[in-house]
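Dear support,

I submitted the protein below through the web form. The confirmation email said the job was done, but the results page showed an empty box. After a refresh the structure appeared. I'm attaching both so you can tell me whether what I see now is the final result or a partial one.
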Amino acid sequence: MSRYKNLIIAMVIFVGFVIVSMVFISWFTKHGERLEVPKVEGLALAGAEELSDENSMELVVIDSVYNEEMKPFTIVEQDPKPGMMVKSGRKIYVTVNTGIKPKVKMPKLVNGSSNLAAVLLRNAGLKLGRVDSVKSIFGTGLVIKQKFKNKEVLPNTMLDKGSIIDIVVSKMVSNSDTTALQNMRNGVEQKIQEDEF
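What the results page shows now:
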């Protein structure tokens, strides 16, 4: 009888030990506890860090970019995305806006068409501003000057991305405007003579 009694006691102790172990492991690993990822995109870095701390998560900056539509040190992107359910202590990886405009090279627009100039500027990360036209013997729509802040700018000059470039394009002189046409021809001939000496 005492043998069965000892066996029952041993089984009760074993089952009790298993239950206590499972409860402890579940508590220690926070098994099944899930938290919703907060939205930190669009927040200032300091505010996002506070929010992630409040939600028992860690904010980790992994990259920086320039975004002209956002304030400096604002979070541009996050992973995991807002609303996802994750374990407590999860890291939120973020990309932050530097606020520093990158530099780009000014392309050569002179002697090309105004349409080509618009494409080259866009590809370089620059913007086409004012387009002025002047009478010329070279035809219509040819870029004669490229300007930045009302001053001529040379190709390969480093400018802030998004800078506005103005251009001056040629406009065909009509045959009826004989005085302007003659003055232009005289100017070209004089320039050629000066270059020869």
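Response: this is the final, complete result; the empty box was a page-load delay. The mean pLDDT is 81.
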